[in-house]
Amino acid sequence: MRAVIGGSIGNLVEWYDWFVYASFALYFAERFFPEGSPTAQLMNTAAVFAVGFLARPLGGWLLGRVADRRGRKFGLTLSVTMMSVSALLIALAPTHDQAGYLGAAILLVARIMQGLSVGGEYAASASYLTEASQRGHRGLGSSFQYVSVTLGQLFGLAVLMVLQSLLTPQQLSAWGWRIPFVIGAIAAVVVFYLRRRLPETAAYQEETANDSGRRGTLAEVWRNRRAALLVFALTIGGSVAFYTYTTYLTKYLVNSAGLSKGTATSVMFLALCVFAVLLPVGGALSDRIGRRPVLMFFGVGTTLGTYPIMTAIQRWPSFGAALALAVLALTIVCGYSSVNACVKAELFPTSVRTVGVAVPYSLAQAIFGGTAEYIALAFRNAGHEHYFFFYVSGCALFSLIVYLAMPETRAVALSRSERDAVAEAGREPGAGKETVS
Q1: Nearest residue to 238 (alpha-carbon basis) of 34, 398, 92, 359
Q2: Could you tell me which of 20, 15, 11, 48 has the C-alpha nearest to residue 178?
Q3: CA 108, CA 283: separation in Å to the nearest integer?
Q4: What's the predicted TM-score (pTM) here?
Q5: Cα–Cα distance between 128 and 122 in angstroms, integer?
Q6: Most confident of 60-64, 306-310, 373-377, 429-433
Q7: Where are the beta strands (DSSP E) in 283-382?
Q8: CA-to-CA distance for 72 and 220, rounded, in angstroms?
Q9: How far is the C-alpha of 301 from the C-alpha of 40, rounded, in Å?
């Protein structure tokens, strides 16, 4: 439990820094990109947001390799250091009035650093939490990865709500938006200290005792290319839906449903609170019935439910209706987010588990997750906003087909010692023989 909590609190700060950019974009977009309409300004900030995703595959490879060769703890510590520096850069970036587009350039560099950091953070955290959890409870343990991701968003939204209550919109736009990035930089320094004290996982220690020199290499990823392709494919629908309902939805509530910024923030805060509570439930359920049924719940729900949910939000633009529909959408997304960390980690052997997850996951996030908000805004700008709803459903349908065809991973043994313990107890380790190194 100490390892799960320690790994999760660092993940919380990492994703707070990642998402706070999107949460405060409504206020600082005009400071860096003053030309054009509000939608055009948001599209520019969304493009910078997407660039961060493009850096994630490189970060996944670099930090994933580090985590496989130097340890999960070392990789997690390095990623949070990079995130602290990037948050500080954004906090200090000059606006367009002060230095022209130099500020936008610094914003871009900081987002690339964040992309490198998060690219490695996701896989290192997924590997660490999955390996640190007891067999039979890995779904529950690894679900705290997205609990911490959600708590990071809630932390960011809480900061936004406090600042909205203390500052005027003009003050928030002028300088108040810098405050959350300063908070993120300071919090990351605290997490750096905490992560240095985390224990290394038994699975990784076993792997280093039987070192073959292949740990963390792309050659090993290629040897496990079927698993890598599965990670890429099953991520597509989940990433698009997750960012639609956690990042873009706030802007949708303001720009399309006509709610105030404060009301939209309150809706998202309460909906994400419910989401955070549901995630361990989904993880624990996957330990009992398997990962695939939980993933299929997400696939079916998102394929069929996206258009009705998003159009209903426009049709009934009130606080209560928006909250109920946001909770419904996030309940469906819980089917993906609660198990995606463990199911991906369970597909790979220990020697390449982190980089094997990081590279295909980050590629899928860069191509689909990172561009979701930009695509949504582009459709809106073109006058065809509802096309985006079909896009989300199509991505979910593709991943649903993958969920139907992929193997069940719940019974996989993550290490030789785990497999031997199962065998000694008279139980068949099943697919674990194929995934332990």
Answers
A1: 398
A2: 20
A3: 36
A4: 0.79
A5: 10
A6: 306-310
A7: none
A8: 17
A9: 32
